[in-house]
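not sure who needs this but someone in the group chat was asking about Ricin B lectin domain-containing protein from Naematelia encephala so here u go. i didnt clean anything up, its just raw.
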Amino acid sequence: MLYLLSVLPLLATLASAKPIMNRDRPIVKRDSTQLIYATRDNLCLSLEGGNTKYFADGTGPSPTDGTPVVSIDCDSATVWNINAGSGSITVAGHEGFALDAGSSPGNFGSLKVWTSYPGLYQQTWYYTGDHRIAITGGDQCLDEGDNGVQTYQCTTGNTNQSE
């Protein structure tokens, strides 16, 4: 009994611990303030803006509807909130803006952020069992193509789609 009492505080601490962002491994847990990392070229999903950093604490500049989403070095990339299960992927610190694939997502489709409308088809994503991020109810995945991030038909074994 005494042993159990001594272990309980440790278990409580571990249960409340926040995962550390690590670009050397794929996302294994849905959480807030996560990098979305492409294994193809070691770049991360980010809002376009050169040296403009969108900070998770909300102190960075606010995105606007239509801000393009690009791939950049992970050290200066945007962090995202990824909901458990199917849901929106929002800009950390600016949760009113969600990753958006446009009204007709298709191959080579560009990505942007737009005002978040939970449940809107082009803003509803899920993390697949084989480490891809796909549009819920569709056949399009986040894909790191030759010209950067895009949507493309989900294909098993496509290393452009591994996150």
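also The first strand starts at residue 37 and ends at 38. if thats useful
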